[in-house]
Amino acid sequence: MINExxxxxxxxxxxxxxxxxxxxxxxEVYLDDETGxxxxxxxxxxxxxxxxxxxxxxxxxxxxxxxxxxxxxxxxKDAPKVDTDGHLSPQEEQExxxxxxxxxxxxxxxxxxxxxxxxxxxxxxxxxxxxxxETAGRTDRDGDGVYDxxxxxxxxxxxxxxxxxxxxxxSEERLNVGTRSEEVGRARLRKYVVTENVTETVPVSxxxxxxxREPITDANVGxxxxxxxxxxxxxxxxxxxxxxxxxxxxxPVERVRLDKQTVTDQERVSEDVRKEEIEVDDGTGVxxxxxxxxNDGRIGR
Length: 301
Prior knowledge:
Elements: H1 7-10, E1 14-16, E2 22-32, E3 38-45, E4 51-56, E5 61-63, E6 66-68, H2 73-77, H3 90-99, E7 112-116, E8 120-122, H4 221-224, E9 278-279, E10 298-299
Parallel strand pairs: 1-6
Antiparallel strand pairs: 1-2, 2-3, 2-7, 3-4, 5-6, 7-8, 9-10
């Protein structure tokens, strides 16, 4: 059971069903008129969270950032469609009670109050105009739309329903900005073969023929006179030369890998938010109030 001190903790939590499956995000909490206890929660369901569904808080359990309901996901998603306008009519509440098998409850003729995540509890209107039925001990015996327990007090008549007390609550929307991670692309490594021409210079050597002549001397006269005096003959020598030789081998030169780093940028977001303003009309034609700081007839910041 969720109590009054847990309201702000409940808003924004993740609603899960009895099996632990995610239902959606808790958007608002509706309070009982009489007791002020949390009675209903609205949960964003459907595709992209576009549908808002009422779920009773009677048996809900809060655990950290999760709010567990004793119903399955399909049961919640198929709940009767009720507008989340800050007010539950008795008929709408009875329809929800029947759907969730909770009987009539104790707030058959009461409405609910709504609270947003940052604006605090907002007191809702107390029922529909002309309602004279007894409501958890509150009565309107003369049918003037004013409960007997506030009769005689200096309060204004609520033109939108029975008078509740001497004040109305002003609420406003606040912008909650966060981030979510999403995939924007992928990077991969791929290697392929290219061919390029490499030119190197290498020194090569070769043998060439050189003719040497020497005169006949006493030292070589014997070799010179060896053989016939007149004859024909040939002498040859073998010449050598170096030629460039090219061989190729594959060798590892480096290793390449992919890594990630987080870069933080600043992005500006803009969204419209609504707020309630209270206009004072005292019948004199002069609008103003202690909270009307700019004297424009509207109470607010």
